[in-house]
Amino acid sequence: MGTMGDMTEPRWLTDEEQHVWRAYLHATTLLEDHLDRQLQRDAGMPHVYYGLLVQLSQAPRRRLRMTELARSAKITRSRLSHAIARLEKNGWVRREDCPSDKRGQFAQLTDEGMDVLRQNAPGHVAAVRQAMFDRLSPEQVEQLGAIMRVMAEGLEPTDAHADLPWLR
């Protein structure tokens, strides 16, 4: 990042890069809205809550430390705490204190939460497939996967002290 005394010209986006950037923003906004509306309509929950249930369902004993869940979901601890409170109210998740760390807690997917996930997974997968994979060729799917992995690797620092919202 330049300083006031740094007179070098920024590397502006080319016209093609600008078109790609805007198309990316447009598509990802529409996709997230599409998936959120589908889950709100069919399951009464936002997409981010569904993602939390999925992560818990795939964890050993269907439970994760809250800090690990925040890190893997890429959301702040306060947003996670609010989401887990809502999921607890529905009976889909329960919190447990961590015996080895008095400040730590686990989130555990309940049997009821697992049932909700099983009931809603087919509709969600259909929405993902319709919005994304049915529109792409196998080659495009492969390319998109490669591109997203490169982007994610470049954006997620491995430094334990990185200033990332989900680590706060």
TrEMBL record:
InterPro entries: HTH_MarR-typ (IPR000835), MarR/SlyA-like (IPR039422), WH-like_DNA-bd_sf (IPR036388), WH_DNA-bd_sf (IPR036390). Pfam families: MarR_2. SMART domains: HTH_MARR (SM00347). It comes from the Bacteria. GO terms for molecular function: DNA-binding transcription factor activity. GO terms for biological process: response to stress. Residues 17-153 form the HTH marR-type domain. This is MarR family winged helix-turn-helix transcriptional regulator. It comes from Streptomyces sp. R44.
